[in-house]
Design a protein that fits this description.
The chain has two domains: 67 residues, no CATH class; 64 residues, no CATH class. The protein is mainly alpha-helical. The longest helix is centred in the middle third of the chain and has 21 residues. Helix 6 packs antiparallel against helix 7 and helix 7 packs across helix 8. The two termini are 55 Å apart.
């Protein structure tokens, strides 16, 4: 031993040529966890990793399985989770605190609709909605019909037989679909 001790606690540190600081592992972890700069760096790294759909799926499965196992094996943890849920339910801060028609529910509905119809260029969304609502076409069939209409419009665009307004609409739809394909 060289007599080197941790700068935060009295623990003696074993000699290590790769050591960069003067903290033991637990103190270093505690120090990094409290550092806003380190937290931001870790947050950014995790966002980058979760952008990969394969990693995100594996991570989601691993974390949910760990939680299920903890709930099965640790009765105290399961009781604490149950108590938290019951307290939330009694507080009225959950679903009941946002009745139908409230601003937060309307916003959630708008976001949900936008997520579900994100595949469709904005200029063709009225056609999709009309097919679904007025004609009662199933979602998958309506999507196929809209995509077929886009392809047909693009073919007409290439043959130069579209009026100017429709030309702009089809060009914007093509750009939208190309951008969505690049984002994948």
């Amino acid at each position: 031993m060289t007599g080197l001790t941790c700068s935060d606690c009295p623990k003696a540190l074993a000699p290590n040529p790769r050591r960069k600081g003067s903290r033991c592992r637990p103190c270093l972890a505690r120090h990094n966890a409290r550092s806003p700069a380190k937290q931001e760096k870790c947050r950014e790294k995790m966002k980058l990793r979760l952008a990969d759909p394969v990693f995100a799926a594996v991570h989601r499965e691993r974390t949910s399985e760990g939680r299920r196992r903890k709930l099965r094996e640790d009765p105290a943890f399961a009781a604490a989770c149950r108590d938290t849920g019951q307290r939330l339910g009694r507080s009225g801060l959950g679903h009941d605190a946002r009745p139908a028609g409230s601003e937060s529910r309307l916003e959630a509905g708008r976001k949900r609709r936008e997520t579900l119809i994100a595949w469709c260029p904005p200029s063709y969304r009225s056609l999709y909605r009309e097919l679904k609502a007025k004609q009662g076409v199933r979602s998958a069939d309506a999507r196929a019909m809209v995509l077929a209409q886009i392809a047909e419009d693009q073919n007409r665009l290439q043959r130069q037989v579209l009026p100017q307004a429709e030309f702009v609409r089809v060009r914007e739809a093509a750009r939208y679909l190309a951008a969505r394909e690049q984002g994948r």
